């Protein structure tokens, strides 16, 4: 299996650093991408980093990942709580799926406590800020190393 990992970001994450910084922090999505690529290089992972406000684009990237990727690290954002379609797409992916949330969704509004994505995710990281992405990449890399023996 390849060392390719898709890092997928859902709606409004293009506004990271500008939208509700008291919840999501001041780092931008470009900062997150830079950090993911740097860690990926260190861990021997190839990173494909995408963001979309459109559900179908995220689904298309999940379908694309089925053919080539070892893992998906995904912050589905608001689609976490609403998208059976993303869950169905993730259920077609055989690699590792790590769900990431910048904030601790369990300390927030009740509707944020439910995740369709968690029903497929191999792990969920919430409340660690943008470091959650890096933790997710480290987990995928560890599982790949263990699979190699």
Please describe the structure with a list of short key phrases separated by commas or semicolons:
149 residues, alpha/beta, Rossmann fold, five-stranded parallel β-sheet, globular, aromatic amino acid biosynthesis
- Give helix % range: 25-40%
The assigned CATH architecture is 3-Layer(aba) Sandwich
Whole-angstrom Rg: 14 Å
Strand content: 15-25%
* C-alpha end-to-end distance: 13 Å
Would you identify the CATH H-level superfamily?
Dehydroquinase, class II
* Cα shape: globular
Query: For this structure, what is the CATH class?
Result: Alpha Beta
- Structural domain tally: 1
Sheet with the most strands: spatial strand order? 2-1-3-4-5
The name of the CATH topology is Rossmann fold
Number of strands: 5
Total number of helices: 5
What is the typical, i.e. mean, pLDDT? Answer: 91
Low-confidence stretches: none
Verbal overview:
The chain is of the alpha/beta class. It has a single domain (4-148), classed as Dehydroquinase, class II (Rossmann fold, 3-Layer(aba) Sandwich). The protein has five helices and five strands; from the N terminus they run βααβαβαββα. A five-stranded parallel β-sheet has the order 2-1-3-4-5, with helices on both faces. β3, α4 and β4 form a beta-alpha-beta unit. α2 packs parallel to α5 and α3 (55-68) runs parallel beside α4 (84-90). The radius of gyration is 14 Å and the shape is globular. The model has no long low-confidence stretch (mean pLDDT 91). The active site is at 24 (proton acceptor), 101 (proton donor). The record marks 19 as: Transition state stabilizer. One of its GO terms (biological process) is quinate catabolic process. This is 3-dehydroquinate dehydratase 2. Keywords: Amino-acid biosynthesis, Aromatic amino acid biosynthesis, Lyase.
